[in-house]
Amino acid sequence: MEPVTGQPVTDLLAGWLPRQRWFAGKGREIDEISIATATELRPSDPAVHHLVLAVRQGETLDRYQLLLGMWDGLPERLRPGEIGLLPGTSRTWLYDAAHDPQATRILLEHMAQGTVVGPLEFHQAPGMEIDTGLDGVVGTAEQSNTSVIFGDSYICKLFRRLSPGVNPDLEVNLALTNLGCAHVPAVYGWVELEPSGGPGLADDEGATLALLSEFLRTGTDGWQLAITSVRDWFARSLPPGTEPDPAIAGGDFASESERLGAATAAVHRDLAAAFGVTAQPVTAISAAAEGMREQLAEACRDVPELVPYAKAIRAAFDEFAGLAGSPPFQRIHGDFHLGQAMRTDSGWVLLDFEGEPARSPGERRAVSHPLRDVAGMLRSFEYAARFLLADEEGTSAEGARELEMRAHTWAKRNRSAFCRGYAAAGGVDPAANSIIVRAFELDKAVYEVRYEARNRPSWLHVPLRSLAHLSD
Ligand SMILES: Nc1ncnc2c1ncn2[C@@H]1O[C@H](COP(=O)(O)OP(=O)(O)O)[C@@H](O)[C@H]1O
Ligand SMILES: O=P(O)(O)O[C@H]1O[C@H](CO)[C@@H](O[C@H]2O[C@H](CO)[C@@H](O)[C@H](O)[C@H]2O)[C@H](O)[C@H]1O
Known about the structure:
seven-stranded antiparallel β-sheet; carbohydrate metabolism; Phosphorylase Kinase, domain 1; six-stranded antiparallel β-sheet; Aminoglycoside 3'-phosphotransferase, Chain: A, domain 2; 12 helices; glycogen metabolism; EC 2.7.1.175; kinase; binds adenosine-5'-diphosphate; binds the ligand O=P(O)(O)O[C@H]1O[C@H](CO)[C@@H](O[C@H]2O[C@H](CO)[C@@H](O)[C@H](O)[C@H]2O)[C@H](O)[C@H]1O; alpha+beta; glycogen biosynthesis; single chain
């Protein structure tokens, strides 16, 4: 294989990276890319190298992983991963080998054998046996990383932006699998970058590179189920004089929401058992409120559309800060929304315990109030109910009012059902802690405003519209 570490390759990657969904530094200039580690996994036909790229953007140094494939003449089936022609050659193509079953199978083989290749440590979970005879296909879900699905058996998440230390998704899934929790996918294996994995690394903690989990063959993600229900409710014609009640819609989702609430409480209970519960000093709530205020100030600087709501949001944070007591904090999901839960034939399964992509590794693993997850899911019901409203902008004022009212009734019904299920299964009762829930919801909506402005500007109206209601 030709050298993969030269300037022409990094120049090519500098053009390709910002076009990737998973690249977290969009909108900021790339000052420098260097190759921190390059590990040959296969010498030829196709050659496959595992790369850790160190990407400097201003003060920020991020690390990303890439399975880099190289072919003479790229076959059509690998076009989705095309990076470009290796400069100085006329037919040697570089491509993202996550799209190549021949390359991704190597990951399974190494995990099954528990091999160490250079700085890469492959692991098979205790008591599991990985079938290495399966072809991998890149998943099509909207996601922050890249997942490769192997037959009906496994899904392997390649963490793209590497955070130092063990990734909480691996840490939590492994701990809950060991406890026998029925609401997370079983862990089959993982890959780690050993500490001090090469030049250009900002730390010496190593990183989790990949997580191989049970593929939930019968699963449908909660977001898809919820928006199907919303669409059904929006399309339903109501006989004149009928009270608009989403319970009568064919696609009513409330009993699923209630079961999802119960599954969330069960996962919180297992997280507390696995990682413990820590009584916080009386200052914990005011410290959390301070974090919320800081995020709000930064978000207002980044997204001016948020400014009109800031005063009311700050007032809710102040009310939260004034609460007395020392709440028990514990590990939580951290970025809980409908897309992070799958309904399978045996119930709800929670996914992706990585926390919010924009938070620091320390924040993602920090203990917090479990109602923060509840608030995350409540925001998601708002999203599901409201994101379709923008599509209806051509409708009359009366039609728009009707849809707004339907969105409101759908969200209210499903929010209540989720909270009911959560409390009935032993979770902290959201209804009895409305100041806390409201502050966490507003904090999440502020995060979302920033997230949407950076990643999906056409969705920015969704959290902004909610803020108009929430900050009333
Ligand atoms: N174990 C699994 N079985 C089936 N599908 C899964 C599984 N884990 C994740 N998915 C699908 O992949 C999507 C993205 O997964 P997620 O862990 O949230 O990735 P990311 O952290 O990259 O956003 C999920 O919304 C779901 O549709
Ligand atoms: O799933 P990720 O860990 O990548 O989470 C990020 O992306 C989510 C969107 O894909 C984003 O979630 C927001 O949009 C969802 C609808 O697509 C909605 O259900 C959520 O409530 C809303 O927060 C999440 O915030 C972000 O961290």
